[in-house]
Amino acid sequence: MNRVAGRGGARQRWSARLAFVAVAGAVVLLLCVAGFRSLGLVAVGVAGPAVSAAAAWWALTRRGVVRGIALVLAAAAPVAVLVSYVAARLLWVVLVVLGLWVLAAAAGWAALRPDTAPGTAPGRPVPPPGHACLLMNPRSGGGKVGRFRLREKAEALGAEVVLLGPGRSGDVAALARAALARGADLLGVAGGDGTQALVAGVAAEHGVPFLVVPAGTRNHFALDLGLDREDPSRSLEALTDGVELRVDLGRVGGRVFVNNASFGAYAGVVQSPAYRDDKAGTLMRLLPGVLTRQHGPRLRVGAGSVTVDGPQAVLVSNNPYRVGDRAGLGRRDRLDGGVLGLVSVKVDSAVEAADLLRGRHAPGLVTLTSRELVIDADRPEVQVGVDGEALTLPTPVRCTSEPGALRVRVPRHRPGVPAARPRLDWRRLWGLAFTAGGRALPSGAAVPGARGRSGS
User: Of 207, 225, 233, which is closest to residue 123 (Cα–Cα)?
Assistant: First the structure.
């Protein structure tokens, strides 16, 4: 064990050193080949994306000729950057420097990544259910129920299957309660996240386990549980060889959600009757009024002592999403943290739009966690997207986390969730690379996997 740990420590140490060597090589190359012109190269490289971001803001908030000019400018800015590098005969320098920075980042992440990433949460072994009832939407995900023969496979394992027809999909909660009245001791859904949330709420209310079969289009809840989204039939293995996890549920205005609830620009646009038939056209037609606050409510978000006034977009999630890790956007490291995640965006000018390129350091981007959030508005009602379902709720809207409210039955063997990429902390890297006995500190490492408390 010590020998393995020693090898891992040596790997991390040399990876950290490689990161600094690559950075030094990039700086030396710039200074030796470009000299003082290197400052211009950096300035042009920063200005190009900033101009594109600002032009994109104008394109989204303006109409007519101004929008057309902005779109041309957004596309022309990166081209102009490349042309300037070619004209200065320094394009090869820029490409090599960029490659060295990519190498530095990759080596840094490798150095900070824990030697042994935790796998999927083991959960609590449980016996097969006596009467499982699965609600399946044949139209969800382009017909995955039929394509993967989910009904036949579930019934072969002894489960009762209820197909959601055109006239029954709107009352899945009532169908789930009816199944419990018939003696079901496990509820499951083969469908999208919106349907999953409705039935999960019923399962949590009655304290019965819940089975997720990712037969929808995106299936973000299944993704963060570590289930196989490519072959949803593998989730049925939980009926015979399953373990149980305890995960949180979110609640917005009394409605349960498993993923997120969105307020503001996106929620307002998707509720337009024209959105389903012409998504792009509807977005471009309605966004100018929404983003400039000529239409739609003015939101106000409260989270403890923090208040955000006037954001154009607000996302409340059941446990926080990865924000700093662009490769992991849309993923949550755990579902049992007992908190809500908040991401709000407030942009009032093209300069502030360009400033969003700074990521988590941008003033217009607020990210935090809290057990409770309140979204208020200057109108009696606001439009909300709850796990992809369009709703209208009275203000103020209270969002809360219900820790460990849901018992989830998952297969013992499942893909799991990839480890979160650690934040590139150069101070930690320096200590790891050049301090005697240095090692990566575990405090900055995210906890990967769809971690869940074992069911009781």
Answer: 225
pLDDT in tens, 342-372: 998 888 888 878 877 777 778 888 899 999 9
Please say whether the beta carbons of 138 and 146 come within 8 A. yes
- Go through 416-432 and write b for each residue having 16 or more CB atoms within 10 A of its CB, e for each that does not: bbebbbbeeeeebbebb
Please name which of 187, 227, 193 lies closest in space to residue 207, comparing C-alpha atoms: 187
Q: What is the DSSP string of 166-185?
A: TTTGGGHHHHHHHHHHTT-S
> How far apart are alpha carbons 220 and 209 in whole angstroms?
19
Amino acid identity of residue 194, one-letter, is G
Find out whether 94 and 45 touch, Cβ atoms under 8 Å.
yes
SS3 406: strand
186 and 209 Cβ atoms separated by less than 8 Å: yes
Q: Count CA atoms closer than 13 A to 45's CA, side-chain side.
A: 15
Closest by CA to 236, choosing from 191, 271, 280, 188, is 188
Q: Residue 42 region, left (φ>0) first, then alpha (ψ -120 to 50), else beta?
A: alpha
Helices marked H in 250-333: 265-270, 279-291
Dump pLDDT digits (tens) for 47-64: 888 999 888 888 888 888
Measure the CA–CA gap between 295 and 191, rounded to whole angstroms.
Answer: 34
